[in-house]
Amino acid sequence: MTRTRHVNCIIPPHLLDKLLGSDDSEIRKAALDTLLTTTRLRGERSVRASFAGAAAAGNGRRTVFDCRQGRFLPFAVLVRTEEGAESGDLSVNRAFDGLGTTRDFYQKVFQRNSLDGLGMRLDGYVHFDAGYNNAFWDGRQMVFGDGDGRMFTDFTGSIDVIAHELTHGVTEFTAGLAYHHQSGALNESISDVFGTLVKQWAANESAETADWLIGADVFTPDIDADALRSLKAPGTAYDNPLLGKDPQPDHMSRFVNLPNTERGDYGGVHINSGIPNKAFYLTAVGIGGFSWEAAGLIWYESLKASSMETKFQDFADTTYQKAEELYGAGSAEQLAVMAAWQGVGIQISGVPAGVARARSLAAGRDGGVGREDGLAALSKQVGALAAQVRELSEDITSLKAMR
């Protein structure tokens, strides 16, 4: 399969475009510099380092380099390896730890050996450029800007941002989802989904207690914004004069059509990703418990079964099929998947709308939670059986008294 590598950035172009209209000259300049640098990188897509001291491939070995505000990665200085001591630079340590947490998540939850499944090394570059308002995965390595300090902070401070960007690598080595229109929005959504799953896994949070935000840590305290995106409520992550209103839709009826250009966000890949994001959130809370278990496994297996031009409908159908393969036809997990996609305006192929509604209502009567703990379910069955035995015993006693 031929794959075109993109520079996948966490800050979408529509946000930077909005900042170009700011009354603050420093904010305008930082946005323009970030856009120009990112455009240059997309044109090159060959920036990579080769150091004798770099870690060899195998089991996701980590190496962190310091760009020292430079833009040319081969000039970066090696500052931390698996064998080296902790650095005195907080950005270095946070990048190193974030790479490790993401690697460990994929290994322990899905038995995946690094991004490519073959132990691909994980290289991180910190202090890229001066005041660079972004972080990106370029197909080979993870690069972090320090932020301008006015709008954005150091991007190494957000574990879900790190996991989001590295998951672009997982997608590249599995489905290879083309970075435009629906397949590109699905690509971004997959990174948001597993970005938040890594954050939840690291904090041991359940679907019910998680905040479901991406990039909650990237804005400075002076900026009135919750995060870059919300999986729970797409379109509500921010709403202020500086950034505008979060444009993400949460339903197919609000799908946004944009041109397949860089300034058009390749057909709105960072915008329309809100639709499959919401579908995953609904699935996870519908099943309940830890999101990386059933819901995460269904999405991961569906990603592996997808192809370059997979669209929302294709992926929805695949998740429904995978839920059946993993948990059984008509299982609570499968019903949660079906109800979730229906909730964002996508009907599973081959399932009549009336049947889907009836099954969704049935799932709702069961509390909207698909999967019960095995012991709890067994205890409930035993309790029901004991009640039946008591009733039978009472009937026998009554019959004996009548003789």
From TrEMBL:
<keyword id="KW-0482">Metalloprotease</keyword>
<dbReference type="InterPro" id="IPR052759">
    <property type="entry name" value="Metalloprotease_M4"/>
</dbReference>
<dbReference type="Pfam" id="PF01447">
    <property type="entry name" value="Peptidase_M4"/>
</dbReference>
<comment type="function">
    <text>Extracellular zinc metalloprotease.</text>
</comment>
<dbReference type="Pfam" id="PF02868">
    <property type="entry name" value="Peptidase_M4_C"/>
</dbReference>
<dbReference type="InterPro" id="IPR023612">
    <property type="entry name" value="Peptidase_M4"/>
</dbReference>
<feature type="domain" description="Peptidase M4">
    <location>
        <begin position="99"/>
        <end position="172"/>
    </location>
</feature>
<keyword id="KW-0378">Hydrolase</keyword>
<keyword id="KW-0862">Zinc</keyword>
<dbReference type="InterPro" id="IPR001570">
    <property type="entry name" value="Peptidase_M4_C_domain"/>
</dbReference>
<dbReference type="InterPro" id="IPR027268">
    <property type="entry name" value="Peptidase_M4/M1_CTD_sf"/>
</dbReference>
<dbReference type="InterPro" id="IPR013856">
    <property type="entry name" value="Peptidase_M4_domain"/>
</dbReference>
<keyword id="KW-0479">Metal-binding</keyword>
<dbReference type="GO" id="GO:0016787">
    <property type="term" value="F:hydrolase activity"/>
</dbReference>
<keyword id="KW-0964">Secreted</keyword>
<protein>
    <recommendedName>
        <fullName>Neutral metalloproteinase</fullName>
        <ecNumber>3.4.24.-</ecNumber>
    </recommendedName>
</protein>
<comment type="similarity">
    <text>Belongs to the peptidase M4 family.</text>
</comment>
<keyword id="KW-0645">Protease</keyword>
<feature type="domain" description="Peptidase M4 C-terminal">
    <location>
        <begin position="175"/>
        <end position="346"/>
    </location>
</feature>
